[in-house]
Amino acid sequence: MLGKYFKKPSAELSDRVPPGQHLATGFPVLTYGDTPQISRDRYSLKVWGLVDPQTFTWDDLMAMPQEEFTADFHCVTHWSKLDVKWTGIKVLDFMKHLSVDEKAICIMEHCYGGYTTNIAIADFLREENFFAHTLFGEPLSPEHGGPLRLVVPHLYAWKSAKWINGLEFIEEEASGFWERNGYHRRGEPWAEERYSY
């Protein structure tokens, strides 16, 4: 498999490719369970918990500032893809529309299809994080998490939830799907936080 679909990173990329990773020649699709098929006109993103509850439609999200992003993408299954080009909404711009209780220290990401994953507020509220709806100039396909996914470049990709449709602000850390099934609570690639051991 190595050579056709993946290659070892060259020495000059050692500052961009975390330990234990290989570079993907394509953009692999890894999904547990069925792939939800959600049209943009049916899409909504809800926020609740320690926040004033709101529901954002697709049009609401598209009315927010849109930006282009280039970010490296690291999967816990040992592959990375560099310079992935996305279009979407900065998390920090989205957060300007919310009123969050200061007791909230964690967010549970909820998705169409029932997937969940947790992320600390400190990891969520970073300049480089964004909600993506476009990948390499094309609408984000369902296989890659469309119509909308979160992208958190500094953590392994299971924290970048596909088909995201809810953010639950909570005052204690809780475990999402993969965290309950042996994955690390945070998932930082440079520390190889893959599993909870």
From TrEMBL:
SUPFAM superfamilies: Oxidoreductase molybdopterin-binding domain. Residues 33-178 form the Oxidoreductase molybdopterin-binding domain. Coiled coil: none annotated. InterPro entries: OxRdtase_Mopterin-bd_dom, OxRdtase_Mopterin-bd_sf. It comes from Oscillatoria acuminata PCC 6304. This is Sulfite oxidase-like oxidoreductase. It holds the Pfam family Oxidored_molyb.
